[in-house]
């Protein structure tokens, strides 16, 4: 409506402009301004002093001044060849306030209003109030508050200012009461709804907010539903309609999805066509979908992607592989022809890096697996990006491969990166059923002066131990990627707090370590160190401890060497769902020290997806430790088992040999096995940061004179909960020992919270 009023004013003053004859402007005077500078008004006038004023220029002046939004009234008068511009300013917005808002911070609401033009210090435009109310309601709708209402109050203030107040009645959060799927026959509605992110209220939806309607989430769920059918042979599946309705009281939402399943199709044949530059047998080996199987869009997409990726590894950056289906609706069979178009073979002209304002260019380029001047290789480009991501120096990494202008067989590879802070001062706290309260702190810098070198100072203290350490690492000590690092540390332990035989240790040491990359998946590490350990025992300590001290004394020096190998094929280090990780390490007391021993440990961990939500995890660990050169293994180097990280349901470090008083001694041989079925926490949808698991654990520790009899293994079963929480990883388990003996210490509920730095 205000727009038409403005047009009416303009038309009126256009008529006024025609009422006077042209004249030469001897002077220009502005009247009525309060906050606006006269120079601002002059800048919008199409005429200057000494120029001729015409009716066309008068109309243009009025239009221009109204268009600024500063004025609600503009008039032009002529007094003895003096042009008088009379204006009435719009009031300024002095303050914007909100009453009754709890869901949003006031600053967040003010930011939303400023985007539509309503902000403190700006000219007040009453026409914006409706838009402002709609913007506030829009933000509440995004939070599922469909019953929110807004009342606006404008209060005049002195000096031509106004205060704007929005009184908000937030109402209740509107929840999804029902989700119905109509037309499904092949799958139960319950099973289909488990695929959805959107849910009806549950005991965890207060945290996930998945019981609040979101158009984006619904679109994702519909695509998930479509994929479920297309991956199970229903080629003609269609979503006919989707209805989202809200109850009159704005408290409940009902979603109804109407589907047509169609018939189930099997694959009759899969052919290859087009230009096959690679052996047909090799390309056929990449096809996941076989004749006689139920059609699956997922397998077909994986097949075409594998083919294009394989051609991309040969330099064909713009290869295409498209499947052409031929349906036999009578027999319910589909024949597929995958047409291959490799395009031209492409070379990499330049690798360009931008955005590394801190990190040196060489720090980024040494992670490149794609070389300039070589054939384009999509696998090597992807590995380059993954290696940059693993550095954890950058928050964003984008890769583009534009064609080089004027050529048809060359591309540039552009890496656009965004630096993130790599230094941190951290103070943390954790809690475990073993060590109780843990306080920790660290100062780290992962990228000193942009060189890629790491340095860290760490401190952690608990009821059982206190650790202080300083470490330095150069990940590229050589151009081949061999790393070198140095460590110094001071560690103190009170074993009596663990239920072990009484002893204390105070160890000061340091060492150097190297890492050698064998392949993209394999890494070999080795190190050399020296340490001094002071022992504390008393008359209550086990006899074996006292005998050791009587022979070797309370002060021991040792030279330690270590070597380790790791092969990591997991899809994620934090929340793995497939792949395996293998570890092997050897630590030994070398000649030159008073202690001669070795500790050998091996671990195999394997993940296999049983379904979209369930993952099977198998873990096996074996450890052997023994003295060398006729000397015994130092008792504080013994192996232990039991607790939340090995055999749950049994007290930490409690399995294995004991002394006469029942204190655990540890042993020289350790065997641990775990079987777990992991799945998301109910109510969290596909969020994998929270996971439950059903487990069966087995393990035991054996003394030097004992053989590793499987009959001595202790077993347990139960349920575990893990969460990558904002304060660190949380592990909580409730275990039931299956074959506990009278001497075993039971601890069914076990937990650990917080990251110890």
Explained architecture:
With 757 residues, the chain is α+β, with helices and mostly antiparallel strands. It folds into six domains: 2-89, membrane protein fhac (Ubiquitin-like (UB roll), Roll); 93-169, Ubiquitin-like (UB roll) (Roll); 175-260, membrane protein fhac (Ubiquitin-like (UB roll)), CATH 3.10.20.310; 266-341, Roll (Ubiquitin-like (UB roll)); 347-419, membrane protein fhac (Ubiquitin-like (UB roll), Roll); 423-753, Porin (Beta Barrel). A hairpin with a 5-residue loop joins strand 27 (597-609) and strand 28 (615-627). Helix 1 (2-17) packs antiparallel against helix 3. The protein starts with a helix and ends with a strand. Mean pLDDT is 85; it is low at 1-18 and 428-435.
What descriptors fit this protein?
single chain, 757 residues, alpha+beta, Ubiquitin-like (UB roll), 16-stranded antiparallel beta barrel, 3-stranded mixed beta sheet, 13 helices, 18% helix, extended, disordered N terminus
Low-confidence stretches: 1-18, 428-435
Number of strands: 35
Whole-angstrom Rg: 37 Å
Proportion in β-strands: 35-45%
Helix and strand composition category: alpha+beta
Helical residue percent? 10-25%
Query: What is the number of independent domains?
Result: 6
CATH topology descriptor of the largest domain: Porin
CATH class of the largest domain: Mainly Beta
């Amino acid at each position: 409506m205000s727009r038409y009023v403005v047009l009416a004013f303009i038309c009126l003053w256009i008529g006024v402009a025609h009422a006077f004859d042209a004249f030469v402007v001897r002077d220009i005077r502005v009247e009525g301004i309060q906050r606006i500078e006269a120079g601002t008004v002059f800048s919008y006038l199409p005429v200057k002093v000494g120029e001729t004023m015409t009716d066309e220029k008068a109309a243009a002046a009025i239009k221009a001044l109204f268009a600024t939004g500063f004025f609600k009234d503009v008039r032009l008068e002529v007094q003895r060849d003096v042009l008088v511009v009379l204006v009435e300013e719009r009031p300024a917005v002095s303050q914007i306030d909100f009453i009754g808002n709890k869901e949003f911070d006031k600053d967040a609401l003010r930011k939303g209003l400023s985007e539509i033009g309503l902000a403190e210090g700006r000219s007040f435009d009453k026409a914006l109030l409706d838009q402002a109310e709609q913007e506030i309601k829009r933000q509440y709708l995004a939070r599922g508050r469909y019953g929110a209402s807004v009342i606006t109050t404008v209060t005049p203030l002195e000096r031509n200012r106004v205060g704007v107040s929005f009184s908000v009645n937030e109402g209740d959060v509107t929840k999804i009461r029902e989700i119905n799927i109509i037309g499904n026959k092949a799958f139960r509605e319950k099973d289909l709804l488990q695929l959805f992110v959107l849910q009806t209220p549950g005991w965890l939806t207060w945290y996930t907010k998945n019981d609040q309607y979101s158009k984006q989430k619904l679109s994702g769920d519909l695509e998930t539903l479509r994929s479920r059918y297309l991956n199970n042979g229903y080629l003609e599946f269609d979503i006919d309609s989707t209805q989202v309705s809200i109850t009159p009281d704005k408290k409940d939402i009902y979603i109804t999805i109407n589907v047509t399943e169609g018939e189930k199709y099997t694959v009759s044949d899969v052919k290859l066509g087009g230009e096959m530059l690679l052996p047909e047998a090799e390309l056929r080996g990449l096809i996941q979908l076989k004749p006689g199987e139920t059609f699956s869009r997922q397998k077909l997409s994986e097949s075409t992607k594998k083919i294009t990726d394989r051609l991309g590894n040969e330099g064909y950056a713009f290869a295409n592989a498209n499947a052409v289906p031929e349906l036999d609706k009578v027999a319910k069979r589909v024949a597929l022809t995958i047409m291959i178009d490799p395009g031209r073979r492409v070379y990499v002209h330049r690798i360009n890096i931008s955005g590394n304002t801190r990190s040196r260019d060489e720090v980024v380029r040494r992670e490149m697996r794609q070389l300039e001047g070589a054939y384009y290789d999509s696998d090597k480009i992807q590995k380059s990006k993954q290696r940059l991501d693993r550095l954890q120096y950058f928050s964003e990494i984008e890769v583009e491969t534009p064609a080089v202008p004027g050529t048809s067989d060359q591309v540039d590879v552009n890496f656009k990166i965004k630096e993130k802070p790599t230094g941190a001062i951290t103070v943390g706290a954790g809690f475990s059923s073993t060590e109780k309260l843990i306080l920790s702190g660290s100062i780290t810098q992962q990228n000193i002066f942009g060189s890629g070198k790491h340095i860290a100072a760490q401190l952690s203290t608990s009821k059982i131990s206190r650790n202080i350490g300083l470490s330095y690492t150069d990940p590229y000590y050589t151009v081949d990627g061999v790393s070198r690092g140095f460590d110094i540390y001071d560690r103190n332990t009170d074993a009596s707090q663990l239920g072990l035989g009484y002893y204390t240790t105070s160890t000061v040491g340091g060492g150097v370590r190297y890492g050698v990359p064998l392949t993209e998946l394999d890494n070999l590490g080795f190190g050399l160190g020296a340490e001094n350990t002071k022992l504390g025992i008393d008359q209550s300590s086990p006899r074996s401890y006292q005998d050791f001290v009587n022979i070797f004394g309370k002060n021991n020096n040792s030279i330690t060497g270590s070597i380790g190998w790791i092969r990591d094929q997991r899809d994620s280090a934090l929340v793995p769902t497939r792949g395996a990780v293998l570890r092997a390490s050897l630590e030994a007391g070398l000649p030159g020290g008073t202690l001669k021993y070795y500790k050998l440990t091996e671990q195999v961990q394997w993940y296999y997806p049983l379904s979209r939500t369930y993952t099977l995890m198998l873990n096996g660990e074996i450890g052997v430790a023994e003295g060398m050169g006729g000397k015994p293994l130092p008792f504080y180097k013994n192996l232990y088992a039991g607790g939340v990280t090995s055999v749950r349901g049994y007290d930490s470090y409690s399995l294995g040999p004991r002394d006469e008083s029942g204190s655990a001694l540890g042993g020289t041989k350790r065997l641990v096995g775990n079987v777990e079925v992991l799945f998301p926490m109910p109510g969290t949808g596909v969020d994998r940061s929270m996971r439950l698991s059903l487990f069966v654990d087995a393990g035991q520790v054996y003394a030097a004179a004992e053989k590793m009899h499987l009959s001595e293994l202790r077993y347990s079963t139960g349920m575990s909960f893990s969460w990558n929480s904002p304060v660190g990883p949380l592990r909580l388990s409730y275990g039931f020992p299956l074959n506990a003996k009278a001497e075993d210490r039971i601890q069914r509920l076990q937990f650990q919270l917080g990251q110890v730095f």
